[in-house]
């Protein structure tokens, strides 16, 4: 089965090159070091680095938390950091220290992954969250490189896919040297997929500490405003258009004089901030808002003075989510209002920003369910309900403060995954070196 998979992946390489060129037109980062995608590396490398693969932005942020714990234990640690997306690679640059190396993980052909391992010769590897590649895992096993899956999660949808491809997926999961799951449910699903789960360590993202300077700046900006602020956080394509329709409908009600008899008056009183999940969509989302008749202000034009007056603000910057959560009185959880699985709500909770989420949170199912059960987040059925709930929360200071406090307590109560994962990974590295 892996032979058929390898042939298909090999034949798809021209399509990958075409896709990279197309993506690179909007995100130049995809045009960087394209040959690395196919296993050709020019970057000098010394053997023995600890290798972390963080495919995209979210995984890279989780890797940053793990790296902090690893370096606290071994300050001389050398790291090989690999990615699959331009946003992940851009974020990963911030994590590099002298002696570290960054590269693209190659396309999963037997030849490319063998060249990757022969060039970098890592001492141990860790794949973040969901990145299970059959040829890569087989090549690591052949080369004697211990390989772990950390902060591991597997949704019901992904499990069904793995079971459909059992002859390919099960050997890959089984060949991992260690699997450290986020939750008991993830562990159960990973076991069904063929993995041997060695521990349930929790979610690394609970160990993230919001940047206090960014959080304080956002709160200072909020204190200077005369109206409450609500945010659509980490929004995904399709959500912004639906959100703007809801706002436009509320505005029409206000203009017609109906707002005083409905909750739409509270909706109209809000200032709105939209922070798209993917930076390549900043311009498109700003254009959508303008086309819907709203005036638009963008974070990139604010400077240090804070937001200028506008109907809708666009958070078009990277690495500033604590600032946005500090600025907002309430946040709507992006990715949860369409069947996209939802985005990470942990950072919002840690920042003390009340959360309203939609029905689709399967990517972070246990965290979302626990937050709801503990009163740290609210769930609604539709985006229209979410907008109205945000308006009600913004107008109710005591209730909003209770939710904020519960969110901070929820985030703090689930810390510890970084320490557990770092200890296990360094033990795996030691066991690998002792067996060679």
TrEMBL record:
Catalytic center residues: 59
Source domain of life: Bacteria
KW RNA-binding (keyword) present: no
The keyword Transferase is assigned to this record: yes
Site (Transition state stabilizer): 129, 205
EC number: 2.4.99.12
Name recorded for this polypeptide: 3-deoxy-D-manno-octulosonic acid transferase
